[in-house]
Amino acid sequence: MCPAAIYGYSSSGKTVFLGLLYAAQTRYTNELRGESYRFYGDPSTIRQMGSMYNAMRNGRFPPANLKEEMSEIRFKFGFPRGLSQMLPENIRKANWVKPFSIIDFAAYDVAGEDVEEFVETGVTENRRVIQELLKAHIIVFIVDCSRFTTTTTGSLFDRMLDYDKNGAVLLSSLAKHKADMAKKTAPTGGKKGTSQTTIYPVIVLSKFDQIPSDVLTQLGLPPSPPAPSDHSGRERFGQALMTRFLPQMFALLKGGRLMGVNFDKSQFFFSWVQVAQVAGMDTSSKPAIERDLKGDVKFAYEEYRAFIDYFRELADRAPDDVEEGNQVPSR
Questions:
Q1: Which pTM value belongs to this model?
Q2: Which of the residues 5, 20, 159, 161 has the least number of beta carbons within 10 Å of its own beta carbon?
Q3: Which domain holds residue 298?
Q4: Longest Cα separation, the chain
Q5: Does 223 score more than 90 pLDDT?
Q6: Residue range 94-109, pLDDT digits in tens
């Protein structure tokens, strides 16, 4: 199983992202025929995600007390191996040949604070969270688009600067950790540190519907991102936002190769959920989520399908989990 982890600042949209991902997984699994995609969550995960899913299908955002209960969310993404699909059904079901490539997707409620503590002191009370992030081969960064601003002063701008710095330190630590592990696991007598370790960064731009229009206008970008099938267009769109608002993180993605760690091309996904526009609504009230006639949430489903399908590619490209030490690397 290839480990993946998610990182996002407090109130960046992690909880809603996970709720929508769960909704997308449920819908996508039931739409597909055969064994082209399956997912599993442990009982604790399904209990929490099921509560979020039910709240959203009732038109409500997840309650604050549910967010406070979230500490660890784990999914297994299962994608069929190509050769296994050629085998008879009874052999596939016997699981003798491990017919599925599995990605172990873990979401910890890091909220940025644990990384901040690690950045400032080199230690953290929640060392396990940092360790899991450093062990991951796939890192999902949640970036809150509502914090993008054309001004260069104020709390929003300061918050984004902090996120950029801490994300850059996380990438630097990740590259160093992987380089250290490559040296430790190099064959006896072989050249240590010469092989490339690949990390797959995934950038989810959450609350895309709340991005100020003047931000996109200033950057010369259209009001909506290109379709998932337009890979080059999405790359240009995402890079324009990253180089403007998260330049340190984006630069460190390129610099990891100097440590023998190749951060593969970033993949960009855009998340939004449609909210009801009610005339006269109190601005302090929580907006209601819009649903269709079947009670399904209206959200960026095609983006989440593309997100899952990208993990299908990674299931065969990324390495399986390996035994790594229990210590956070020193800096």
A1: 0.81
A2: 161
A3: 2-183+197-278+294-317
A4: 73
A5: yes
A6: 554 456 788 888 776 5
Structure tokens at 221: 């970008």
DSSP H helices, the chain, are 14-31, 43-57, 64-69, 89-94, 113-121, 127-135, 155-184, 213-219, 231-245, 247-255, 301-317
Indicate the number of domains in the chain: 1
Mind listing the pLDDT tens digit for each residue in 121-155?
A: 666 555 666 777 777 788 888 888 888 888 888 88
Decide which of 85 and 117 is more confident.
117
Confidence bin at 302 (pLDDT 50/70/90): very high
Q: Write the pLDDT tens digit of every residue in 24-43.
A: 999 998 887 666 788 898 88
What gap in Å lies between CA 291 and CA 72, rounded to an integer?
Answer: 28
Show Cβ contacts of residue 194 under 8 Å, excluding neighbours closer than 6 positions.
260
Nearest partner of 303 among 231, 191, 228, judged by Cα: 228
221 in Cβ contact with 145 (< 8 Å): no
CA atoms of 264 and 198, how far apart (whole Å): 6
Q: How far is CA 148 from CA 35, 126, 161, 169, 212, in A?
A: 41, 29, 11, 21, 7
Q: What is the DSSP string of 256-279?
A: GGGGTEEEPPPEEEE--B-B---T
Rounded distance between C-alpha atoms, residue 3 and residue 132, angstroms:
9
230 domain-assigned: yes
Q: Is residue 12 part of a domain?
A: yes
Beta-bridge partners for 2: 103
Q: Which pair of tokens denotes residue 100? A: 């599925």
Instruction: Report residue 300 as tokens.
Output: 């960026």
**Average pLDDT, rounded, for the chain:** 78
CA distance 61 to 249: 30
pLDDT at 244 over 90: yes
**Residue 189 within any structural domain of the chain:** no
196: confidence class by pLDDT, cuts 50, 70, 90: low
41-60 residues labelled b (16+ CB within 10 A) or e (exposed): beeebeebbeebbebbeeee
* Position 330 in a domain: no
Question: Closest Cα partner for 170 from 54, 7, 3?
Answer: 7
